[in-house]
Structures are given as structure tokens and as C-alpha cells.
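[step 3/7] fold_predict: job queued, chain A
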Amino acid sequence: MEIFLEAAPWLLLGFVCAGLIKTWLPEGLINRWLGGEGIWSVTKAALIGTPLPLCSCGVLPAAASLRRSGASQSSTVSFLIATPETGVDSIALSYALLGPVMAVIRPLAAIISAIFTGTLTLFFRGSDIRAAAAGNHQMLNVINDACSHEHCQDPHCTVNEAAPPQGFVARTLAGLRYGLVDMVDDLVVWLVIGLLLAAAVKGLMPPMMLAEWGSGLPAMLLMLLIGIPTYICATASTPVAAALLLAGVSPGTVLVFLLAGPATNIATMGIIHKEMGKGVLITYLSGICASSITLGLLTDALLRVNDIDVFAQISAGSEWMPTWVSRLSGAILLAAFAFSLAKMVRCRFSTASSAGA
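[step 4/7] structure written:
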């Protein structure tokens, strides 16, 4: 409960900001910003994607839309990496659970990783071309198959995409609903697992137990092997990263997990292969692996040279936070979590009943 209350104000702030960005930032404007070729286009894609509230799966249809609207392969790759690796919600939660230093390093590393990999794609495009209209329909079907949740016959369980409402109040309320309902629906299971894992490590495992084995190139390569095929978004990966830090895994090694996990999974790799070809997929994975390892090693070296103890800063986010703010935020999040989990259970029972009928 202590860890949850420490994280609650920042997680709530992140959800609210993410929802408002979702409803107030026009998708068409993003499409226009990401047109063209070159390193500047790649950089814009990384900078624009960093704060957006899209998870590892939700970024796929957005990236497909950008690609069909004229964005280059390199810009699309940069957007695909920066967007799921971090966001306003995960940055806020990082401050609470990972400390202020990691809250700064994480988004900067995501931007650098996205620009590096997008730039690599500029030089290794080969003969890969965009899919034709029929191929695009096929790609969207793959996206839907990869990202869809279990089908539910209960109409209350279905969220339909609609045009954003007009008016300040209506759009703001829609943003709050997206942040506190839709995003919670997507993240609640992983968040609960991550918070429970962090609490278990803090309560049962001696601090710095893995310090001897949790740093260096072998440990970072292991994080790549764990992170690349795993479906986990930036926000949900943060409590897991906090648990690793509490156990003594080095900040650089944790950073590798935070970069590789959200940016790569089986669905993402399948979409890149179908939409942009095998060459771009190889470049995508190579760029993420190389940049993650390099940034992880640099992070550990930087912290060591400057004698910065991230472990001692993990609780920094709650030091000045009033108790009533933490408790109120925790109560709001608990209500949102309970509502989401109840809806999930209802969906499962509705699906089972329909299948047995």
C-alpha cells in the first residue's frame, strides 16, 4: 500500500494529462508534421511521439495511418519507437517509483533511441515500398487481430471510436474519460501485477540482493531477451522496473528493459514486416538493441562518475507530497481499478455465457 500511495498522485496526473492530450491534439496535425524525408523528419517523429498516450499496441494503427498519409519509413519507425517507450503518464510514474534522475533519463533515452533507429532506416531502406491499398486493408486486419481484446457480447464492454466532441467542456470530459476509464482498462492488470511485484521485492527481498549480477553487458543482454518479445507498455513496465531497482539491478540495465520492452513485441514486429519489409524490421530490431545497450552502459557510467545513487532517490517523489493528496489520489485510482476489473469480469462471464448458449 505504501508504494501504491507513493505512485498514486503521479499516476493519476499522468492518466489525466494523457487523456487531455488524446482529445486535444488533432491526429491530422500530427500527420502533417511528420511528412517528408530526412533526419529532421525522424527527429520530429521522436519528439511528437514521446508524450503521446499510446501503448505498444495502440501505436500500431496510429503508425499505419501516418504511413498511409505520406510519412516516410524512417519517420514511422521513429514514431513507433518513441511513442510506446515513454509518455506523460509513464514519466510521471517514473518520478514516483524510479526517482527524478531516471524520470529525466528515460524520455531522453527514448528520444535518442528513436532518432538513432529512424536514421538507420534512412540508409537501409533498400527496395522496400509501401503496401498497396489491398495490402493496407490486410495490414489493418492484422493490427486488429493482434491488438483486440477478447470479444464480449455485453454492449457496455465495447468502446467505439468516435469523432472527438466539440466544445471545451465536452472535449475535456472526453479526455478525462479516456485517461481514467479507457487507459485504465488497458493497463490495470499489468499495473496491479507490477505494483504487487514491487511491494513483494521491497518487503521480502534484501535490498541490493542482485547488485553483483544485475549490471554489465550480460545482464543487459538478458533484459533484451526478456523485453523484445514481451507485450508490456511504458506505464505498466515502470513498477516492474522499480522492483528490479529495489533488488539491486543497475539503472542502466533497468533502462534497457524500459526501452526494449514497450518498443518491441510480436505484434509490432509482424506489422513492420508486412508494412515496410524484412529489411526495415532487421534495422528496427538492430537499432533498438544497439541503442538500448549503449544508453544503458552510458547511464551506469554517468551515474557512477557523478556519484548519483538512484536507489536512494526512489522515494523522492513522495517526500513533499501531502498525505491527503496521496490518499485522495489513491482512492480515485482504486475506484477506477475496481470499476475496470469488474467490467473485465463481467465481459468474461458474458463471453462464456454466449459461447455456451
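[step 5/7] annotate
The CA atoms of residues 29 and 68 lie 15 Å apart.
The chain has one domain: 2-356.
exit 0
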